[in-house]
Write a structure and sequence with these properties.
It is found in: Cytoplasm. The chain is an alpha+beta fold. The strands form 3 sheets. Strands 1-2-3 form a 3-stranded antiparallel sheet. The protein has a 3-stranded antiparallel sheet with strand order 4-5-8, covered by helices on one side. Helix 1 packs across helix 2 and helix 6 runs antiparallel to helix 8. It starts with 5 loop residues before the first helix and ends with a strand.
Length: about 280
């Protein structure tokens, strides 16, 4: 007769997240020993991790933390939206974010190899989650931003899912509201750089070349080409450069103008969207 009770089954399921049948088999094999049964489940689960390595992770969430002039952003991916909105995955994300803050990690590699207070690496946490949840889970990106003030903003693209977009904005001067307003703008308009000086020279040259080729294809007069090209390159800046974008709350002003009027200077930003 099995040396365990229904309460033992319930406790082990809550501890490991494994299915009822798997828990019963593990307890049978361990003769009712909870610790040994948990180890059996972990070993069996980890065997499946390598099988999942080639799977696509296109769902997940973005988590953020900001305070005392430092902000941290983490993108954690899984395979399905069902897992992404589950309590176990969200709890895992909270642990990963806390460790990212504690370790001051600036990239996924450093975060994965960092060690928690329990003596486990973050990679160990992910391996355990892979084993119990049954999906490939990975940390895609990590950002750490410092400034006089760092504002964070998380946006849900669906009410049924956790945040899919996360933003950090570092500012000098101004107040807390201007930082948050700009962070919300970044979430909506996805700029790629802070200022036009941050755009690579080869990118600008390529935009100029394409603008000229397009204008010629359209039959524009040769004399008008320089002005047309510069106008279209300027349009590229207005679309991609944060300081030159039309502000979400007042499109008649640029983000840079809004910051100036608030007595603030934007010194940096980071934006993650799940799977992009």
């Amino acid at each position: 007769m099995a040396n365990y009770t229904a309460a033992d089954i319930k406790a082990l399921r809550e501890k490991t997240g494994a299915g009822m049948l798997d828990v019963k088999k593990a307890l049978d094999e361990a003769d009712g020993d909870q610790t040994k049964a948990a180890e059996i489940l972990r070993v069996k689960g980890l065997k499946g991790v390598t099988k999942r390595e080639g799977r696509t992770t296109s769902n997940g969430l973005v988590a953020a933390n900001a305070g005392d002039g430092v902000g941290t952003l983490v993108e954690i991916l899984c395979e399905t939206d069902f897992v992404a909105k589950g309590e176990k995955f969200i709890d895992l994300a909270d642990q990963v974010l806390a460790q990212a803050v504690a370790s001051k990690a600036t990239n996924a590699e450093d975060l994965l190899t960092s060690t928690t207070q329990d003596g486990k690496t973050v990679q160990d946490l992910l391996d355990d989650a892979n084993a119990t949840i049954g999906e490939k889970i990975e940390i895609k990106r990590v950002a750490r931003l410092e400034g006089e003030t760092v504002a964070s903003y998380l946006h849900k693209t669906s009410p049924d899912l956790p945040a899919q977009i996360g933003v950090l904005v570092a500012v000098e001067g101004g107040d807390e509201q201007v930082g948050r307003d700009i962070a919300m703008h970044v979430a909506a308009f996805s700029p790629t750089v802070l200022s036009r000086e941050d755009v690579p020279a080869e990118t600008v040259e390529n935009e100029r070349r394409l603008a000229e080729a397009t204008a010629k294809e359209e039959g524009k007069p040769e004399a008008a080409l320089p002005k047309i090209v510069e106008g279209r390159v300027g349009g590229y800046f207005k679309e991609n450069v944060l300081l030159e974008q039309a502000f979400a709350k007042d499109p008649k002003k640029t983000v840079g103008k809004v910051a100036d009027e608030a007595g603030a200077k934007i010194t940096g930003f980071a934006r993650f969207r799940v799977g992009q």
